Amino acid sequence: MSDSVYASWNPWHGCTRISPGCKYCYVYRQDEKFGIGDASRQCRKNASFHLPIEKKRNGSYKIPSGKIVFTCFTSDFLLEDADPWRLECWKMIRSRSDCLFYFFTKRIDRLEKCLPPDWGDGYENVMIGCTVENQDRADFRLPIFRELPICHRSIIAAPLLEQIDISPYLDSSIEEVSASGESGLEARPCHYEWILDLRRQCVEKEIPFCFHQTGARFMKDGKLYRIPRRFQISQAAKAGIDYRIGKNGIPETAGFPIVSMEEEPEQVQFSL
After folding, report:
1. Burial of residue 267 (number of CB atoms within 10 Å: 0-12, 13-18, 19+)
2. Which end of the chain is more exposed for a tag (fewer CB within 10 A), N or C?
3. Is residue 120 part of a domain?
4. Enclosing domain of residue 128
5. What is residue 10's predicted lDDT score, i.e. its pLDDT?
């Protein structure tokens, strides 16, 4: 992927474990590595809270026009502890219609409580990924997900803990399914046949599919492979099983343009 396409924004840090996929959360793991393990359980605003509207000395935005902004990846954007701050974030997102903001959540059942008053059928510049790790969570979250007013949606099967059937929830409203194993020394194994079965489900519905990471312990043909963190993305790419995924890892169903920094925000239109 080209780094020039993406930006990141973490308005707050810290989260609470709520389901099996959270057991070895990478945020907790990273905080423990730096000796601040308690920080993972305490949600707090980051210094970068206002990043989307911050400008450089020359007056240009620090996050340039046309970026895909990975949002709140060190927490959950729908975390209850962050309720007092979220409306301000929505206002910043709304004001930056020249960028696409993308967040994943295990709390899709809270979305309706967390929406801004002017949400309507969804902001055109927001993509929401519903995370599912096993069949139980898929069957709980995805029926809720498909009924919510969201313009752009994806399903994130990660960390994939078992073979799951999401075919009843796949339709043209799903712009991508992305799957991966679990990272970390204590990672639970991800089986290649689970990944291939998810891909089959997507191909049958013509939904773009991305195998974005193997995880640290990967089972293939009955053999367990231990894959160092630095190779987990590249090894997944070498499998060559992505479906309808184009340049920079963007699904073919995506119609939003990636523009240069020189273009003015009002010139940019998103249409997925």
Report:
1. exposed
2. N
3. yes
4. 3-267
5. 98
